[in-house]
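Example S7 (structure tokens).
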């Protein structure tokens, strides 16, 4: 009897191994033929170690292939791999590009991930904290957890502004002290006052004094010219940086405005769909809603049907109340 059990067990494991091998082989063949779904499933197998040994490099490769072929879930996984450095080197810029494409199509996960990247993005002309603030704000439409990140960014921006103000005050104090000390210039060619005078003639004394004053004037002029030249160079460099930052900010604003328009369209379509469902429950059309008085009469009639005490249920009554609220809000807006 034990021999029979062993034979059956061996046959079971052999058939299971054959099926797994056949599954991976079939997925690989379809994936090589540029089938996005097969590429995504094959990437998942390597990612999770299902029917094959886990391999992050292979998972990244097949996720990237499926993403390039338009597979939405693969695009999200590819962005995660790029942001975390799984199966490849960390590439936050590439991750931002994929997350931005997904967010523009209404993906609910992408805005929060974008905000997280920008929150820890190194300082640059992109103003990462400002972008993180925007994406956390967008993410709050989809995920309540984004509110914590939004509050954290506001606090970080406040601290940064305070540190900047303190630094500017310290720089002003330092510059004021330097100007006071620069007023007292010492001529290195002037002889010590304790040395005996070698020239007794008044004419020579006046001449020496004039030469000393001319040298001092030339020195002061050179110092001022050098300082003025340095300040002009700094101002030109600062103006160039400001122009570059303004250009980048304008580009980002255009992208964000386009993103907000997409978000508003998405919200509007959700509201229209919600109104249609509510009107259908009341037996109305979304384009021809009667006055509030008629709506409340119909609500009382339907309450007799859906109320839990009158052969209805709690869920049906909640749905009826929510539909009433939606319809009345729409009537009020009009």
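Recovered sequence:
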């Amino acid at each position: 009897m034990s021999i029979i059990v062993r034979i059956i067990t061996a046959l079971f494991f052999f058939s299971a191994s054959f099926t797994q091998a056949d599954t991976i082989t079939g997925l690989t063949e379809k994936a090589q033929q540029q089938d996005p779904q097969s590429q995504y499933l094959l990437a998942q197998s390597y990612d999770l170690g299902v029917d094959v040994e886990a391999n992050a490099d292979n998972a990244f490769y097949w996720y990237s292939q499926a993403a390039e072929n338009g597979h939405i879930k693969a695009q999200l996984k590819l962005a995660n791999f790029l942001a975390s450095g799984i199966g490849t080197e960390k590439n936050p810029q590439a991750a931002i590009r994929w997350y931005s494409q997904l967010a523009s199509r209404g993906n609910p996960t992408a805005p929060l991930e974008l905000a997280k990247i920008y929150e820890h993005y190194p300082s640059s002309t992109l103003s990462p904290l400002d972008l993180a603030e925007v994406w956390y704000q967008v993410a709050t439409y989809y995920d309540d957890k984004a509110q914590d990140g939004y509050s954290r960014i506001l606090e970080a921006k406040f601290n940064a502004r305070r540190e900047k103000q303190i630094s500017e005050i310290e720089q002003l104090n330092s510059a004021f002290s330097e100007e006071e000390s620069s007023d007292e210039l010492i001529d290195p060619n002037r002889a010590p006052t304790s040395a005996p005078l070698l020239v007794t003639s008044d004419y020579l004394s006046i001449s020496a004094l004039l030469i000393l004053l001319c040298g001092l004037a030339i020195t002061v002029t050179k110092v001022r010219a050098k300082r003025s030249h340095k300040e002009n160079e700094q101002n030109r460099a600062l103006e160039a940086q400001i122009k570059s930052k303004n250009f980048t900010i304008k580009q980002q604003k255009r992208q964000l405005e386009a993103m907000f328009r997409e978000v508003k369209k998405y919200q509007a379509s959700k509201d229209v769909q919600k109104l249609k469902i509510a009107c259908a429950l009341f037996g109305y059309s979304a384009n021809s809603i009667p006055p509030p008085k008629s709506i409340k009469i119909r609500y009382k009639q339907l309450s007799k049907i859906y109320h839990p005490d009158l052969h209805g249920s709690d869920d049906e009554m909640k749905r009826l109340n929510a539909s009433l609220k939606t319809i009345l809000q729409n009537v009020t807006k009009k």
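Notes on this example. Residues 267-333 form a domain with the Helix Hairpins fold (CATH 1.10.287).
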